Predict the structure.
Amino acid sequence: MMGYSFNHFDPMDLMVETFTLENYVKFFSDEYYRKVFISTLGVAALCTVFALVLGFPVAYFLAKTQSRYKSLFIVLLVFPLMVGNVVRAAGWMVILGNVGVVNATLMWLGITDEPIKFMYTPFAVIVGTTAVVMPYMILTLQSVLEGIDFSVEEAAQNLGATFATTFRRVVLPIAAPGVAAGTMLVFILCMNAYATPVLLGGTGLTMMAPSLYDQIAKASNWPFGAAMALVLIVTTLLLATLSNWLIHRNYVKTMGA
Amino acid sequence: MSKVSINKLKKQFGDAVALEDFSLEIADGELVAFLGPSGCGKTTTLRMIAGFIEPTAGSIHIGETDVTNLPVHKRNTGMVFQRYALFPHMTVAQNVSFGLEMHNVSGKERDSRIATALDMVRMTSFRDRYPRQLSGGQQQRVAIARALAIQPKVFLLDEPLSNLDAKLRVEVREEIRSLQQNLGLTTVFVTHDQEEALAISDRMAIMYNGRVQQIGSPKELYDSPSNHFVADFLGRMSFFKGNLVANGRFVSEAGTNIQVASGQKVGRIGIRPERINVGAHPESDNVFDGWVESAAYLGSLIDIRLRLQGGDILNLHVPNNASSANTAIAPGSPLVASFRSSDCVLFAE
Ligand SMILES: Nc1ncnc2c1ncn2[C@@H]1O[C@H](COP(=O)(O)OP(=O)(O)O)[C@@H](O)[C@H]1O
Ligand SMILES: [Mg+2]
């Protein structure tokens, strides 16, 4: 595939074997693809932040709870992972569509007169993708938080720290490497999301994975599709390596290998 | 430092009662050990004093202040945990500094208090190390320094030595005791190790099944246990169930006649193994013939189970000293044992 990306695309012969950077030049110089690339990064970042902010309290609760319903919570959390993304996207359509649950409620409450367009907007993609990655985020964070000796938090409180201070000065720094790893995993999942952006974003928002799929499957432009795929993969790998390096640099010396 | 008053403390987890009717006054500067088998409610009580567990009933005062409903971070107790609980992302000095920062101690005063605390536990040269670079004993010393740096009103330790090996355990125990005495710390020390409790405490509270069995000095508890549980839990004791047939004369169920001090209602008597002599000692008014059932060589002493006529078992300790070293004590051999009536402990049941 890497090889394909250096080939030339001809509308008649499709792929002509050669060595050219024209696909990469096209990708980074064409306003449209630059926008696809940037919005993919943006959407992925937003979804990751939302998943982190919403998932952390849930993970913290799961890690600390003594409730006998804990395993039930976890099963409920894992359950969506077994339902395909397409099915879940269909669910969001029912909720977010023009005659969907949200709009019906808003109109019934008189907050709005006309349905608000949620579907095929970046909003729908962000909501849908955040929901897809949320269980991964929560489960990763939970295992990280469960690894922290709870008596360390108690020691902080005993020394006069409030819950908030304990969280900021003790829990977060200790959990940071694990949180960063979980966050990176989720970011990568978001970057490479396919079904959710296609079904919920439609033409309103194009992301990398759907766009490169179109190049290969619809336009039969394999070289350009391959180049896009490679850009996506390299970006993902670079970010993963960078974060890994940051984690190690900051924490290995204190937390042990 | 302050005195601590615990009044009718109770804790229930669901239907299970973990602690009941616990009342105790700890004097300013006193060290009280909570001793008892696992699950008897020691940790629960300690954690209620620190504020980690809310009592079901009863009250706790530190000094004159009722702290029963005060949150943990406002109680100003210094706690040392079983597994050290040091902050792994902070150096030794930063660990000690944390509590001072929480108490708004800053600048020169903070530096000097960190230095004093570390010096106290001989950890000054390790101030820039991280916890994982320290041994267990060193980590526990840092935890002690961290707890004491904030000058707590009460010093609380939950089995602080149980993760250390035997030699270190004694060493750190002695350090804790001397710190406690020099600084006049009001201290609660939780342990399931009776030797530890006996060695370190001014008074100890023996607990069983969520209830205090007896509170007193180590000597009081060992020499005059108030019930069968305390006597059996603390050290060793041979017990005989039976009845007083006349004042000062006890007959066991197996028919052994034993002279005892006079008592009211007696259902059981006990005698410590080290109070029993081999041979008919002139001061002993109880003399028995028996057969050695087993003899365990324990180094400084020989632990003997002696079967008396009638079947009662007497447990005695023969010191491994110059006079006894050459006596052959083998299972099956006859042996005369004697003890004083005043050394018998009487129990109502
Ligand atoms: N959080 C809890 N929930 C339910 N039961 C508990 C809890 N903590 C302690 N217990 C019970 O209370 C009793 C006393 O426990 P604990 O104070 O930890 O004993 P100790 O420290 O003396 O070994 C035990 O039976 C224990 O199972
Ligand atoms: Mg305990």
